[in-house]
Amino acid sequence: MHRVDPIGMEDSEEPLEQWEVKGSEGPYAMILTRRDLSTLYPGMHRYTLRLLLGDRTFALFRTNTYEYSPTDPLDAESVARREADNWKSLLSRDPETFFAAHLEQVREPPRSKKNDVLIIQGSPRADGNCSIIAGWVAAAVENAGFSSEVVFPHDLWISGCIGCYQCYNTGFCTFDDDMTGIIASLRNARLLVICTPVYTSTVPGELKLVMDRFQAFHAETILAGRFVKRTGLVCAVSGRTGKDNFTCVTRVIHDFMKNLHIIPGEPVLVDGIDRLRDVRKVPGLKEQIHAAVTESLVAGGTGRHGC
Ligand SMILES: Cc1cc2nc3c(=O)[nH]c(=O)nc-3n(C[C@H](O)[C@H](O)[C@H](O)COP(=O)(O)O)c2cc1C
Known about the structure:
This protein is α/β, with parallel strands linked by helices. It folds into 2 domains: 13-103, no CATH class; 117-299, Rossmann fold (3-Layer(aba) Sandwich). The chain contains 10 helices and 10 strands. The strands form 2 sheets. Strands 5, 6, 7, 8, 9 and 10 form a 6-stranded parallel sheet that branches. A 4-stranded antiparallel sheet has the order 1-2-3-4.
């Protein structure tokens, strides 16, 4: 359940019921609609309740079927209808309180940043091998005439996704923490590079947490129907020797990228670093990273067009 900044009715919304509510400025129209999002997730429907005067929206409430867990006695449609009853009741008794409460709910959508490339450095070691690689990636981007931003999830305040699915009501997360800035950085970027160590055959926890929280960006793009062409690149380092150490890392990151319509290129996988200790000792690796970044920038088109 979430209230957001009023946004216009979408073509894909099916009107369910309409009520007329008396008000000082004239009769308000209160409209309940349903949007079928089952092409996204099976059985997902989003209900929207709006209070309108002419074409101006004064209040908005949204809820979707995925918000309610199996043991929850509530369901989305009855919650939306109960909210409609609450609105009617409060509007007739105390319209001032009603409008004041709805104005307080307005939240600005996050702003986009201006970087061309987002680099996520997933190791908790700020001076480790993945950081060295992230530095090489940033240098390659700059060399190609583009800008980048490097983020270190371990240095940031980011809550884990709680699976509330409210991002599919609004297009943004219920948490407003450092993840808001990371999403803003991807919004303008044409290339996402993830540098990660192998931790217990997959990615470190904080990096996984960032990937889960990108669900809000998935919701934002799906609801807006706005897909920007982006490419992705994975640079991963393992302690043990053998490319099989990267099976889960590449699977997890590539599935994450595909979910966000990011097309991943051939990953750069550096194994056996427990023996070498330092990626700078791997012959030709810096040049390989440079070439992979340049190729990804070319594949992504690198045009500086806004979203
Ligand atoms: C908690 C932890 C788990 C790890 N798990 C694996 C593993 O499953 N397979 C592997 O090959 N290396 C594993 N490693 C080794 C790291 O992948 C390796 O040290 C990597 O170079 C670290 O990158 P960094 O220098 O950027 O921190 C693990 C290291 C740590 C600290």
